[in-house]
Amino acid sequence: MTAGEIRAQAAFTGAWKIEKSEPAPWAKTSDMLDARETKRLMGATVEFQANAIKGPAPLACKGPHYELKQYGADMLFQGALAEYGDPSTTPDKLAAGLGFSKVPIASLVSGCASEIEFHAVDADHIVFALNNSIYRLSRAAPAAVNAKTPP
To answer: Which residues contact residue 56 at a Cβ distance below 8 angstroms, ignoring those fewer than 6 apart?
Structure first.
């Protein structure tokens, strides 16, 4: 793993829980969404490790080649906000509506076959797009230490 891959992975390292799904700005009708997939992914944990991404398919990956990119709103979701978003507004306004308050936006490219990119809303929240849905993840809190107190 290169120094760049280590730095990129470190910003996203650890466990994240998929907490919410919403239609992507380019999903114009409900038949563009996959309700079964959304149900399957909701509540799942995704964990970014040095040599793997653990989680449900298609997010899981062995041997990722992490790269941290700094994107403008027009590059989010592999350019979908700019290419397929609402033509009556701008990618910046669409991104703001999704919770992005500043650019550039730190984005993790995993280098995995699924080509899913993860975009940081802030230090504890990331999003990714899959099949016309935007999934929101929150950083999982570290497990509480279960220390026994002496009697």
So the answer is: 40, 41, 44, 46
Task: Tell me which H or E stretch contains 3.
Answer: helix 3-12
Low-confidence stretches of the chain (pLDDT < 50) are 143-151
CB 34 within 8 A of CB 27: no
Exposed, middle or buried: residue 67 (CB in 10 Å: 0-12, 13-18, 19+)? middle
Rounded Cα distance between 125 and 121, Å, is 5
Place of tokens 């040095």: 50
pLDDT at position 44: 97
Give residue 147's pLDDT. Answer: 39
Q: Which residues contact 30 (CB under 8 A, 6 or more apart)?
A: 23
User: Would you say 80 and 95 are in contact if contact means Cβ atoms under 8 Å apart?
Assistant: no
What pLDDT does 28 receive? 86
Instruction: Tell me the C-alpha distance between 52 and 39, whole Å.
Output: 24
User: What residues form DSSP beta bridges with 18?
Assistant: 137
pTM of the entire predicted model = 0.86
What is residue 151's predicted lDDT score, i.e. its pLDDT? 38
